[in-house]
Amino acid sequence: MSIWWSLHLRRDAASVPLARRLLIGTMETAGVDPDISYDLSLALSEACANAVEHGGDRGGDQGGPSGAYRVTAYLDGEKCRIEVADSGPGFPSRTAGAFVDDGTRAYAFTARTAHPEAENGRGLCLIQELADHVHIGNDPGRGGAVVSFDKVLKWRSGTAPLMAV
Question: How many other CB atoms sit within 10 Å of the CB of residue 27?
């Protein structure tokens, strides 16, 4: 089974549940276990909320390119990979972790733990807890932040994964 889709969304709070519902519907149709679907939909919601809050205004207006972000989801075999990319200033280079040369030449970042009483700052840590592999960095070609994560899929009991015909 292989399913993928990509959305280009306005940086608006209403776009977050739209992306989440599409992901949940896709996974439900494919037969993914509801607990896995929930984890991935929560991680996606956090990544989208970060893109909405931080992912633009590099001199553009809300309706221009900096007013949008992209969500791409791949269900491929036994894994789901999700990428959320915005057109904002990206992550500050001073907080960069080790340089990663994975073909994209992107810098990797480590999410910092939020203060226990803070109302914000937990999203990236939550994504790292919910997913199996996480890459947080900047897109060197277009600018902006990129958060990608994947998780091994489990299937609903009594159902086989959706197969291509």
Answer: 24
Q: What is the pLDDT of residue 158?
A: 74
Pure H helices in 55-158? 123-130
pLDDT at 13 over 80: yes
All residues at 6 or more sequence positions from 104 whose CB lies less than 8 Å from its CB, including other chains: 137, 139, 140
Confidence of residue 160 (pLDDT cuts 50, 70, 90): low
**Rounded CA gap, 71 and 78, in Å?**
20
* Cβ partners under 8 Å of residue 116, min gap 6: none
Integer Cα distance of 14 and 118 in angstroms: 24
- Residue 12 phi, psi (nearest 5): -140, 140
In order of 55, 76, 92, 142, the CA distances from 105 in angstroms are 20, 24, 16, 12
Task: Measure the CA angle with vertex 135, ends 130 and 141; round to 5°.
Answer: 145
Contact criterion met (CB below 8 Å) for 25 and 1: no
Of the candidates 111, 119, 122, 120, the residue with the CA atom closest to the CA atom of residue 42: 122
User: What is the overall mean pLDDT for the chain?
Assistant: 81
